[in-house]
Amino acid sequence: MTRRHEHDASDAEPSTPQASPDGPEAAPRSVGRRGLLSAAGAGILAGGMLGGFGGFAGGRASAEEPVMADPLERAYPLRGEHQQGITTPAQDYLFTAAYDVTTTDLDEVRRLMQQWLVAAEQMSTGGLVGGEPLANLQAVPRDTGETWGYPTSSVTITVGVGRSFFVDAEGEDRFGIADRMPEALAAGVPRFAGEALQAERSDGDLVIQACADDAQVAMHAIRNLTRIAVGTAALRWTQMGYGRTSSTSTTQETPRNLFGYKDGTNNLKQEDGAEELAKQLWISGEDSGGAHLAGGSYMMIRKIRMNLETWDRLRLVEQHDIIGRDKRFGAPLSTADPTSGTDEFIDPDFAATADGGPAIARDAHIRIVSPHGNKGARMLRRGYNFTEGSDSLGRIDAGLFFVAYVRDPRESFFPILDRMVTTDALEEYLRHVASAMFVVLPGVGAKDTMFGQALLG
Amino acid sequence: MTRTSFLRTVTRPLAVAAVLALAAAGCTDNPSAAPNGDGTQAGAGPIGVTITDDGCEISTTETPSGPVTFSISNEGSVPNEFEVLASDKLRIVTEKENIGPGSTVELTTGLEKGDYFTACKPNMVGALVGTAPFTVTQGEALAVDEDIQRLRDDAVTNYTAYIEDQAGQLVSATEDFREAYLAGDSEKAQDLYVLARRHFERIEPTAEAFGIEEPGDLDAALDLRIQDLSAAADTPVTDPELLAGWTGWHRIEADLFSDDAAFRFPDDASRQQVADQLVEDTYTLYDLVTGKDDTGSEKFAVTLEDVTLGAGELMEEVATSKIVGEEETFSHTDLDDFQANLDGANVAYGNVQKIVEKEDPELAQEIADGFDAVQEELSAHQAGEWEDGTPRYVDYSTVATVQEDAGQTPKDSDYTDAQRELSVAVNALSDELAQVPAVVLS
Questions:
Q1: pLDDT at B42 > cutoff 80
Q2: Cβ <8 Å between A309 and B420
Q3: pLDDT digit string (tens) for B169-206?
Q4: Three-state SS for B186?
Q5: Same domain for B56 and B168?
Q6: Is B9 part of any domain?
Q7: Measured distance CA(A165)–CA(A172) in Å, rounded
Q8: What is the sign of the dihedral through the CA atoms of A324, A327, A332 and A335?
Q9: Low-confidence winner among A269-273, B25-29, B54-58, B375-379 (lowest mean pLDDT)
């Protein structure tokens, strides 16, 4: 079938996961569907349900897309040096929720973090919240039930806190722990050029990111954790995302964004090794706030509306020039005549010329965000596409829920974002509508009884 | 907003376009020439293609470069498609889709020397059927259609003249504005603000592309919106330091139109300074586009590509910043800008209109209707006339949900029916204008 005839057989990727040997993300139980997508010819076809002949009918499955019998059985351990859901191979769906804490009592916050931990641990092993159902039929069920009997679906739950958790709008210490707030969080997110932020969709005291390979499993996690929080924290905003837009592991194909381009090819990945991740990703004990937050990371969020209608009217040559990559293969424009998907991984040559000018334009997206141009600063991107129906002007309301994890946003995220909003040709087609910064709490230790034991315990 | 087309001008040989221009003529001049029996084609006559459900027979494997016409007969049982593919068998050079069973259609295209493939695709899906190599040899040198070339040259000449004219009018209108503004005649200055900016809005994609040090810096000095300024966390838009770093039309707009005293200039000297700077930068723009000054970051030269893209870019300006009311967040004169963008688009498109009419009359008609439809939506909001008889529009905030004084932007669900109708009309026109480059530039 030729639906994907552009794929070269050499695209095939190893079908064994390259889990890090000692991290909390070690040893997922089975191979992901994504990892197998291009393992052409592998005879692991699912029986009956999807058949193997989708090409002509335009169905999603085809002979090139073998489906694992149980691709959703993966489970990731909740406890470890770092929280799950950061370097975990990016799942297909995301549901993130931010909360305003409604209590003034730190003990209530601690209780919430304890209850959240128990529920998260139960969900991340595929169980119901509260374990098996209560025998008493007069009791309200502890779990809402919509994933009862569902596979774990790689679900991860990641918890963080924002600046407004420590101090209120007047700068007053809310819970007596403002002195533990790291400098970067205290300084806040600068005002970036061209942004059109909506306050009620931005910021927050607490955040939970739930990711899974089944949207309903991610929804279940947020729904139940929100239910637990009632009386202590109230929902501020939520965001559903689909079609992960970045790879956090080399076992994953680089996905396409809604402009149709492979994005984030040079993303920081799990396989970059502990040293690079420690340098770029994790808060260390010496960093500001490190005494209580070492092992955590900054979760930087930008909700970016994409002007799809305007973009779709651009000639291909303009689209190429704006991104700096070829659309079919994802190869940098410094590579003349790309011929296969592997060309995507060729390092862009920013000095290359074509037709008397730079092959990769001065304001091309990949040049602006390249680590070469940003003092080697990298971030771990974990964004998702979003689509929220249409706006009242008759345009598709869609875009990128950009999420990046960094050790210190002042070193990496802010300078890169500033370059992007002021010089990136792509910005013309983007609109930043929401923004948030959280510090993701350190990993949950073997003996911990709450998220953020070191910060709150 | 800094658009980029002037910087990323794509240099492409006109040869293909010339061939295409000739193509139509070619097939009518020589409709009956038949291919030779030896598998090569002698003239520019149609090449026969016979489609069956599992075959795609072509009467020749070689032809000289130039206009080529295929006569395609579908003798199969399902609709089919004929494609000419580039040597990578991936990119489609030309195609004819949905050829019904039992029907014969013609496909004319310009082909340059090179290696191609031909193939069919039953039901327009699935694998290629009957893929066969197809070679185009060097044909006779092609004379560019003189008519088309003249239209192209005229397009560039006329659009260049228009830009120079508008830049000139902008200079004098800006000086008039400064006089009224600094004299404290607010009412007159508010009117002149609209009238002067019209000249800028008509040539906005050009004005944006220029720079003194680097491309776009002149646009930033003249037309930066406060929303485009970055600052430390928690900085309000009324922050005096933020305001102090802001120049150009919109800084003055905030001072002149906003009810919020925080947007006033702190003193007359800073007001005068920004107004003088505005006039000076406008002179620089004029000098750059008229070639009086060639020290800028890019030498000004309008290309056919600029003319061709100009209309579409102006309408995209409308779609992204005027309809949502972001451009004139203090004065709400967005509809006057809108009219100026539309005027400019009309002129830019008008310069290539004859080429489009010649190459694709259907598209030309759609575009003409599209311009009418947008003008009709806009005219619904007219409130009288200016002294020169041109339409004057209502305060946009009275018919639209807009950002007020650079505050929070409206929610996506809050736009009014009037905005929706404008948006739908602009979107339709933009979509049609987006097809122009493929016709004019190829």
A1: no
A2: no
A3: 999 999 999 999 999 999 999 999 999 999 999 998 87
A4: helix
A5: no
A6: no
A7: 11
A8: negative
A9: B25-29
Cβ neighbours of B408 in A, within 8 Å: 197-199
Choose among B3, B320, B408: nearest Cβ to A307.
B320
B128: contact with A, CB 8 A cutoff: yes
Is the Cβ pair B420, A392 closer than 8 Å?
A: yes
Q: At B172, which CATH number?
A: 1.20.1420.20
Say if B305 falls within a structural domain.
yes
Q: Chain A neighbours among B 182-241 (CB < 8 Å)?
A: 227-235
> How distant is the Cα of A218 from the closest Cα of chain B, in angstroms?
26
pTM (2 decimals)?
0.81
Q: DSSP secondary-structure letter at B231?
A: B
Q: Which positions 399-438 of B are in contact with A (Cβ < 8 Å)? A: 403, 408-409, 411-416, 419-420, 423-424, 427, 430-431, 433-434, 437-438
- Give yes or no: residues B110 and B207 share one domain: no
CB contact under 8 A, B233 and A315: no
Whole-number Å distance between alpha carbons of B340 and B201: 6
Q: Which of A315, A386, A421 to mutate to test the interface with B (most CBs of B within 10 A)?
A: A315
Residue B143 lies in a domain: no
Q: What is the nearest CA distance from A162 to chain B, expressed in angstroms?
A: 14
Write out the DSSP string of B137-184. Answer: E--SPPPP-HHHHHHHHHHHHHHHHHHHHHHHHHHHHHHHHHHHHHTT
Using CB atoms, pick whichever of B409, B415, B433 lies closest to residue A392. Answer: B415
Burial class from Cβ neighbours inside 10 Å (0-12, 13-18, 19+) for residue A179 reads exposed
Q: Is B299's Cβ below 8 Å from some Cβ in A?
A: no
Phi, psi for A109 (deg, rounded to 5): -65, -45
Q: Please tell me the predicted confidence (pLDDT) of residue B143.
A: 56
Which chain A residues contact residue B434 at CB under 8 A?
313-315
Q: Are residues B327 and B236 in the same domain?
A: yes
Q: Which domain holds residue B40?
A: 19-137
Optimal mutation site among B8, B304, B420, interface A, most CBs of chain A within 10 A: B8
In sequence order, the 6+-apart residues with CB closer than 8 A to the CB of B403 are A196, B324, B325, B326, B329, B409, B410
Residues B99 and B175 in one domain: no
**Cβ-defined contact of B316 to A55 (cutoff 8 Å):** no
Of B127, B229, B420, the CB nearest to A2: B127
Let me know whether B131 and B175 are in one domain: no
Give residue B10's identity as a one-letter amino acid code: V
pLDDT per residue over B104-129, tens digit each? 999 988 888 999 999 999 988 888 99
CATH number for the domain spanning B102: value is 2.60.40.420
Q: Are both B71 and B153 inside the same structural domain?
A: no
Same domain for B340 and B296?
A: yes
Per domain, the residue ranges of chain A are 1-31+33-70
Contacts of B1 in chain A (CB under 8 A): 428
Reduce the secondary structure of B107-147 to three states and give it as a string: EEEEECCEEEEEEECHHHCCCCEEEEEEEEECCCCCCCCHH
Ordered per-residue pLDDT tens for chain A, 457 residues: 233 333 333 333 333 333 333 444 434 433 333 333 333 333 333 333 333 332 333 333 333 333 344 558 899 999 999 999 999 999 999 999 999 999 999 999 999 999 999 999 999 999 999 988 888 899 899 999 999 999 999 999 999 999 999 999 999 999 999 999 999 999 999 999 989 999 999 999 999 999 999 999 999 999 999 999 999 999 999 999 998 777 777 777 778 899 999 877 667 888 889 999 999 999 999 999 999 999 999 999 999 999 999 999 999 999 999 999 999 999 999 998 887 878 888 889 999 999 889 999 999 999 998 877 778 888 999 999 999 999 999 999 999 999 999 999 999 899 999 999 989 999 999 999 999 999 999 999 999 999 999 999 8
Domain end, chosen from B137, B159, B194, is at: B137
Boundary of a domain, candidates B137, B170, B195: B137
Domain total in chain B: 2
Do B215 and B306 have their domain in common?
yes
Cβ separation B423–A317 shorter than 8 A: no
> Across the interface, which of A193, A197, A362 has its CB nearest the CB of B230?
A193
Q: What angle do CA A398, A402, A407 make, to 5 degrees?
A: 175
The β-bridge relationship of strands B66-74 and B47-52 is parallel
* Closest CB to A363 among B4, B324, B415: B4
Residue B14 located in a structural domain:
no
